[in-house]
């Protein structure tokens, strides 16, 4: 049975994961931009090469 506490915990977890993902993407874009490589496609495939 779903309780409100579990639902709230799940919502917080999802929010934090989304925030962490977005922050990581922003940092990757900034890192590429500061290194003179402002191509956004350099970010799209992590772990390639």
Q: What does this 3D model show about the protein?
A:
This protein has helices at 4-34, 41-44. The chain is mostly helical and 49 residues long. The chain contains 2 helices and no strands. The model has no long low-confidence stretch (mean pLDDT 83). 71% of the residues lie in helices and 0% in strands. It is rod-shaped and about 50 Å long.
Give keywords:
49 residues, single chain, 2 helices, mainly alpha, rod-shaped
Question: Which structural class should the secondary elements be placed in?
Answer: mainly alpha
Oligomer: single chain
Q: Summarize the main sheet.
A: none
Number of strands: 0
* Topology pattern, helix = H, strand = E: HH
Number of helices: 2
Strand content: under 5%
Q: Give unreliable regions as ranges.
A: none
* Mean of residue pLDDT values: 83
Cα(first) to Cα(last) distance is: 45 Å
The rough form would be described as rod-shaped
Helix content, binned percent: over 70%
Radius of gyration over all CA atoms, rounded = 16 Å
Describe the structure in brief.
This protein has 49 residues and is mainly α.
List the helices and strands and how they pair.
Elements: H1 4-34, H2 41-44
């Amino acid at each position: 049975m779903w309780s409100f506490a579990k639902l709230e915990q799940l919502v917080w977890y999802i929010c934090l994961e989304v925030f962490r993902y977005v922050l990581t993407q922003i940092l990757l874009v900034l890192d590429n931009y500061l290194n003179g490589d402002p191509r956004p496609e350099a970010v799209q495939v992590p772990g390639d090469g």
